[in-house]
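Quick one, T. Sequence first:
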Amino acid sequence: LFRSVLPDTGAPAAPLAPIRLHRDRVTLALYAHFVAWGWLLYSFSPSVPLLAREMGITKAQAGLHGTAMAAGTVVTALVSARMVERFDRRVTLLIASGVLALGVVILVSGRTLGVTLAGVAVIGIGGTLLISAAQPALSLHHSEASAAAVVEANGVGSLFGLLAPLAVGASVAVGWGWRPAVAVTIVLVGVAAVLIGSLPGRGALGSSSVPAMAPADGAPCDPEPAPAAAPARRGFSGTFWFFWVGSLVAVAIENATTFWAADLLIDGTGAGPGIATGAVAGLVAGMSVSRFVVGPISMRRAPEKLLILAFGLAGVGWLILWSATTTPLALVGLVITGLGYGAQYPLSIALLLRASEDRPDKAQARATLGAGGAIAVAPFLLGALADRVGPHSAFLLVPALIAIGAGAVALGLRSVHRAA
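Structure tokens:
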């Protein structure tokens, strides 16, 4: 896992083969699920202020959509590892696709707060189950290149998601509202289901109870199974939990920002709702660029250090966004913030899976549980604060979370050095 730590045998060291990312049919089919989920997140999250105005509810009430999604996420965290063990990752992905599509139908057809909250809860179950099966599959399928694969998969999702706020803004501008843009998710998740359904459920797409000896299309790039005599392990290491905190913070600040960035722009720059919602595409653009750049770099540089740098860059972007009084400057802040945010979640998940000691599905379930808590609290808390002190002051929550995340990752890096 950590290629710099090699035993001293006294013999000349053979040169290490470069780590490469092979994008085969399994990889592309898994990437398609990130596309569908990315579109949903980046079309609905900036639509929340529009939904609040449409229904005449407070920001705190609108923030309950994050809590509803978190409820679905927690449900998934309790069952995802068992589902993969009982069925396999392929079947789990097909089930998740159906649940996600159902949730979107409920959401876009809802005209009351209760119905939209129910739709988002179902979306949380389906979407989180989707990612909970796809990320361990990528990690197993690509072995040493797992960090690059997970980062790039999230990059593909955010790249397509970049179009989502623009689609919402355009839909609002022509008088259709936000719903048609969110409904595009149904088409995308259908395409992902067709692609994964055409592959056999073995290798990385198989059950967690069967070692992933080779990927589903036969390319020998999956890791070897753990020895049969390996002792049973009950808890995760301290290193794991440090990176778990990093992933939790990454989810919290990303969701809080995408939910309420448009409101901050309206309050700070006087931009109209359509322009402010479309400007959130700047955040997603930065995230997309970051993921495509950081993915290859993570095969040559320590992912832990890249993650700490990402938290620092996010802090710089937040400061520009928070202090901006014009829309162009706020857009610059959103892009720089996105450059930091883009690397945070996929790198922290890749490090967390790497520290899972051959238990990626259980590790992903723990990460999902933490993400559920983050989604439940962060958007609601920021929205409630905005109701009381305004969006500008409420956004001071973000740098506090950034500091916590960076500190946790620094402790994780120290733990890795001690283990080495």
